[in-house]
Design a protein that fits this description.
Chain lengths: 147, 425, 425, 147
C-alpha cells in the first residue's frame, strides 16, 4: 500500500490536533480560499508586526491533507520574518508541484517534509496548498514585504 | 423497475471495454464506479469512429464529391438513430459539444429573442418574468439560468429538496405561475439518484404557458426515455455518459419551438443568405449547428445507441437497480455512513452518494483509489444541493452496464477498510 | 517562402493516412483536394486518441482516482504542446468545439460585459462603438460580429477587397479609429489563399485601443505561426483542419485579457463558488471551458501538432507553395479560367479558387468528382467575398502536406476534361 | 463514366435552351428560393386562372441541374390543373429522394425522367428541387388548391 506514504503519521496527527486553529484578533488581513472541485475552504488571517509574522489564525473545512498542511504552516511561519516565511512557502510549493521528484529539505520545511508523498497525487496537491495560498494572499493584502 | 427481462451477461459485455481490463495502483484490478462522470467506451464505438475517419471522412453538407456524400450520410444516419433512441425525429435533434452547451443554447437564444423577429416573441424574457429551477440541479442547469436572469432582469426561483432527497412539490402551483417563462429541471439527479416526476411539472408548465427544459444527462444513458411521451419542450443529454465520445451533446427541441427560436452560435453552415450587413438563417437543426460539426463523434454516438439498444435499455436499468440496491443495503450495514438521497431503490437510479462520519470525502476517495476503486469525491457540480443537505462534499459511486455485484462487494469492503485505516469506529 | 528546407517525402507521409489509399467512383484513386474544408487524419492521431480511451479515460479535473489523474495529465500536456506550437502558454489557450465557437465566445463575452463587473469594462460595446471586419471573412468571422452589433447597437464596418483579392488597406486610419472596439480579420483567406499583413492592423488597433481577433484557421495548419509575435489579442483555429479530430477548436487570448473577460458558456468546471442566487467564476482557461471538455480530442490534437512539428511547418509551407504555383501556372494555360485572388505565389497559401467560363462550379465539381478528384464548390462560407468578385460561387482546390505534384496534374487534366465534357471551348 | 447518367442529353438541352425563362406579368404570387451551400437562387412566379396553372415564369442562376429542372417544370405544369401539377411535383420529389431506387413514370414526368440519374448524387438533389420548391411555395402563396 502506497497509502502510508501519503498519510504519514505526522499528517494524521496535525489533522487530529491542528495547531493554531480558530480565527483570532487582532489581524492585518484575511484571505478566503476555496477549492472549487471539492468545496473545501479556508479563511486565514495574518498579523504582521514589523517584518515579522506575529500570528496566523484560520478556520475552514477540508480533508486531512488541507487541514494538516495549514496546521504545519502556522508552525513554520509564525514568529519568522515575512521573507523567511516566503522561503518556506516557495520550498513547500516546489515540493508539492514536484510530482515526487523533489527532495525536501527538513531544515526548511520541518514537519512539512511529511507531505512529500502527497506530491505524487496531483489531485491532492491543491488540497495541500490551500492554506498556503491563503497565507500568501493575506500577506500580500497586508502589504507585507516578501523580500 | 422492469424485472421481467433476462439478466445482463456482464462478463461478456466487459470484454468489449478494453480499459476495464486495466490494473491501477500497483496491480489492483480497476473497479470503475465513476460512470456518472463519464462512461467508458466499447470497442464497437471506437471502431465506428475509426472506420469513418479512415474510409469516409469529409466535410458534411458542403462538398459535392463522393466522400462528402458518404460523410453526410453517415452523420445524418447517426442523427436519425439517436433521435429514434429517445423517441424523437431527426429534425428535432441539435448536436452541441456537450449537454452544458445545449442548456446554454436555449438560455442564450431566449436572451437573443428580444433583438430577433416577432416569430420569437414567445422566447422573450424580462423583468417580472420568472425562471424556475430546482435545488438539486447540476451547475449546468443552474448557472446558465442565473446568468440569463442577470442579463434580462428576470427572477430565478426554485423547488427545494426534502431531507430524503426528493423534490419538494408541495407548492407546484405557486412556484410555476403566470409569470413563469421556463421550468428547467433534472430528470435524474447525478448526486442523489432521485428520478423526478416529469408529468406534474410539465402539466403545470403547460397550464401557464411556460417552456420546460429537461436535463436528461443521467436518465438517457441508463433507462428507456421517450422525450416526446414525456411532453417536455427541450431536453439535453451528453454522448460521453452513454458510451459515446467526448465533445458531443444533444439538444432535443419540439419542432415548432426550434422553428421559432433565434440562433445562438453563428457562422458557417447555419445561414440562409449572408451579406455584409445582414444574415438570414437556415431551418433547424442546421440553424443551431454553426461551424464544422462533430461529424465523427456523431457517427460514434450512433454506434453507441446501437450498442445500448442491442443490450436493451430496460435490461440496463434493471441491472443497475440490482447493483444500486446491493450498494445501498451494504452501506446501511456499515455504521457511520450517511447516504444522500433515497435509501431504497424506489424511483432512483444508480448514483449512490454518501459521507462517512469523521472522514472527509477526499480521504475516503483516496483510500478507495488505493484499492483500485474509482469513485468521485466533491460536490459533483451540485454545490447548492450539498449545502442544502448540510455537507460540503460527498463520495459518489455510480454504476453502469459493465459493473457487477462483485464490484459492489469490493466497493463495500473498501469503505470498511477506509474506516479501519483512519481508525474511525 | 522558405526554400532552403529539404523537400517532403510525400509518398512516406501518405502511408500514414489510411483514407488516401481509397478509391472512389468506380475505382478511381482518391485525389483529395479539399483540405481547406477538413484535413484527413494520420494513424498517429487516431491511435493517440484510441490509446487514451482504452487506457487512461476518465473525467478530468474532477476525480481523485488514478485514471482521473492520468486523463488530466494527458489533457493538460496536450494543451501545453498545442500552446507551444503557436508560440503561446497553456493558460492562454481555451478549448472550444470549433473555431466558430471561439469567435462567438469573444463576441458573446463582450456582449455579457455590460452586466458583468467593472473589471470587464474594456469589453463593453454600445451605440457609437465600431466593429471592423473585412469583406473576405469566412461567415464564422462575420456573422457573430453582425449579431453582436445588432444586440449592442454598435456599428459594423469593413475593409474592402481589391480586384486581385488583397485587402484594400488604403484607409486603415479611417476605418480603425477612436470608436473602434474590435478589429477581426482573417490571417489567410480560405477562398483566395491571400495571406493578410497582420502588422499594420495590429499596430493601428493598438493605437486606438481596439482589440484584435485573428482568424488563423487557414494559417496555423499550413505554416509556422507565432501568435505572441504577431501581437494579436485573440486568435482562433480548428483542430480538424490540422490533422486533428472534429469537435475541437482553440481560442488563444492574451493572459490579461482572458483574466478580465466575463464568461460565455456557464455550468460545471468553470465556477469558483455557486449558490442558488450567485456564482463566481474560475480563472482562465477553465472559466471558458464549461461542462465536460473535449478530452480525448485535445489529446489527439496534441498528437497532431507533434506530427506537424516532426514534419516541420516550414517544410509544409514550402511544399504547398510548390503545389500552389504549379496549379496556378497550369490553370493559367487553360483558356476561360478565372482564378479568384492572387495569381502568383506571393503572400498566398494553398487554396486555389476559380471559375470556368460557361460552366457552373457545381458542374465542374461533379466532373472532377467523377474522376476521383475531391474539390469544394459553392461560396465556401464567404458569400460577401464572392459577391464582391462578381461570381455566385467557385471551385476550390486546396492542398496539404499529403498532396503531390502528380495530383496537381490530375487536377489540371480534370479541369480540361470538364471543358471537353460540356463542350466549352 | 457514370457522368452521362446524370448529365443526360435532355438535361443539357434544357440547360442550354431553357423553356419559359424570364419573369412575366401578370402573376399571382412569386417565390424566391436559395440553396445556402452554393448560392444558387431562383425567383419564380405563378399565374393561376381558376384551378389552372396559366403561367410559370422564372429567373435565377444556378448549375445545369437546377436550371434544367426548372425548365422541365414549366413544360410539365403550365396548362394543367393545380392538382395535376402537384401530382407531378410529388412524383418528381419522390424520384429525386429515391437514391436511384425509384422507377420514374414517363407518363407523369415526361422529360423529368432524365433526372433519375441525379437522384444517385444526394448533394445534387437540392439543385434539382430548387425550382420545384419555388413552385410549391408560390402556389401556396397564391392560395391555390392542391387537391
Ligand atoms: C478562414 C476560416 N475561418 C473559420 C472557419 C470555421 O472553422 P470551423 O468550421 O472549424 O469552426 C473556417 C473553416 O471552415 C475557415 O476556413
Ligand atoms: C445531471 C447532469 N447535468 C448536466 C451535466 C453536464 O454534462 P456535460 O458536462 O457533458 O455538459 C452532467 C454531467 O456532468 C450531469 O450529470
Amino acid at each position: 500500500m502506497q497509502l502510508q506514504q501519503m498519510y504519514q503519521e505526522i499528517i494524521l496527527d496535525h489533522y487530529k490536533n491542528p495547531h493554531g486553529r480558530g480565527l483570532r484578533d487582532p489581524y492585518d488581513a484575511e484571505s478566503f480560499q476555496v477549492n472549487p472541485t471539492c468545496g473545501d475552504e479556508v479563511t486565514l488571517r495574518v498579523r504582521l508586526v514589523g517584518d515579522q509574522v506575529a500570528d496566523v489564525s484560520y478556520d475552514g473545512q477540508g480533508c486531512s491533507i488541507s487541514q494538516a498542511s495549514t496546521s504545519v504552516l502556522t508552525d513554520l511561519v509564525v514568529g519568522r520574518s515575512v521573507a523567511e516565511a516566503f522561503t518556506k512557502l516557495d520550498a513547500f510549493v516546489e515540493l508539492m508541484q514536484g510530482r515526487g521528484a523533489v527532495e525536501p529539505d527538513e531544515d526548511v520545511l520541518e514537519d512539512g517534509i511529511a507531505f512529500a508523498g502527497v506530491a505524487k497525487y496531483p489531485a491532492r496537491v491543491k488540497c495541500a496548498l490551500l492554506g498556503w495560498m491563503a497565507f500568501k494572499d493575506a500577506v500580500a493584502r497586508a502589504g507585507g514585504e516578501t523580500t | 423497475m422492469t424485472a421481467v427481462t433476462a439478466p445482463l451477461d456482464v462478463a461478456a459485455l466487459r470484454a468489449d471495454f478494453p480499459i476495464l481490463g486495466r490494473t491501477v495502483r500497483e496491480g489492483k484490478p480497476l473497479v470503475y464506479l465513476d460512470s456518472g462522470a463519464t462512461a467508458q467506451r466499447p470497442r464497437q464505438v471506437i471502431d465506428a469512429e475509426r472506420e469513418f475517419l479512415e474510409q469516409h471522412n469529409a466535410a458534411v453538407h458542403r462538398g459535392a464529391h463522393q466522400l462528402a456524400e458518404e460523410a453526410t450520410d453517415a452523420y445524418e444516419s447517426a442523427r436519425a438513430r439517436i433521435a429514434a433512441f429517445v423517441g424523437s425525429d431527426p429534425d428535432e435533434l441539435v448536436f452541441t459539444k456537450n449537454a452544458t452547451e445545449g442548456i446554454n443554447l436555449v438560455a442564450y437564444a431566449m436572451g437573443n429573442a428580444s433583438t430577433a423577429g416577432p416569430e420569437s416573441a414567445r422566447f422573450v424574457l424580462g423583468p417580472g418574468d420568472e425562471i424556475v429551477v430546482t435545488e438539486m440541479e447540476h451547475h449546468a442547469n443552474l448557472v446558465p439560468w442565473q446568468q440569463l436572469a442577470l442579463r434580462t432582469g428576470a427572477t430565478l426561483r426554485w423547488f427545494g429538496v426534502t431531507d430524503d432527497g426528493r423534490l419538494d412539490l408541495s407548492d407546484v402551483d405557486g412556484l410555476i405561475n403566470a409569470q413563469t417563462k421556463v421550468v428547467a429541471f433534472t430528470h435524474q439527479s447525478n448526486v442523489l439518484g432521485t428520478v423526478n416526476p416529469v408529468e406534474p411539472l410539465v402539466t403545470r408548465a403547460r397550464q401557464v404557458g411556460a417552456l420546460t427544459v429537461l436535463d436528461a444527462c443521467q436518465s438517457v444513458p441508463h433507462s428507456a426515455v421517450d422525450l416526446r411521451a414525456l411532453g417536455v419542450d427541450f431536453a439535453v443529454f451528453s454522448s460521453h455518459k452513454m458510451l459515446g465520445p467526448y465533445g458531443l451533446g444533444v439538444l432535443y427541441g419540439r419542432r415548432e419551438l426550434l422553428a421559432a427560436m433565434p440562433p445562438f452560435l453563428t457562422g458557417g453552415s447555419m445561414i440562409e443568405m449572408v451579406d455584409m450587413t445582414r444574415t438570414t438563417f437556415a431551418a433547424p437543426p442546421q440553424r443551431f449547428e454553426a461551424g464544422t460539426p462533430m461529424t465523427s463523434q456523431a457517427v460514434a454516438l450512433g454506434a453507441a445507441v446501437d450498442y445500448l439498444s442491442v443490450v436493451g435499455t430496460d435490461r440496463i436499468a434493471a441491472h443497475e437497480h440490482l447493483l444500486t440496491v446491493a450498494a445501498l443495503d451494504g452501506l446501511a450495514e456499515i455504521p457511520g455512513i450517511r447516504v444522500l438521497g433515497p435509501v431504497d431503490g424506489h424511483a432512483r437510479g444508480g448514483a449512490v452518494s454518501f459521507v462517512v462520519d469523521g472522514i472527509h470525502p477526499h480521504d475516503v476517495g483516496q483510500v478507495l483509489d488505493d484499492q483500485g476503486i474509482a469513485v468521485r469525491v466533491g460536490h459533483h457540480c451540485a454545490w447548492p444541493l450539498h449545502r442544502r443537505l448540510g455537507v460540503p462534499a460527498s463520495v459518489r459511486a455510480s454504476f453502469y452496464l459493465y459493473n457487477d455485484l462483485s464490484e459492489v462487494d469490493t466497493f463495500l469492503a473498501g469503505v470498511r477498510e477506509t474506516k479501519r485505516f483512519f481508525g474511525v469506529a
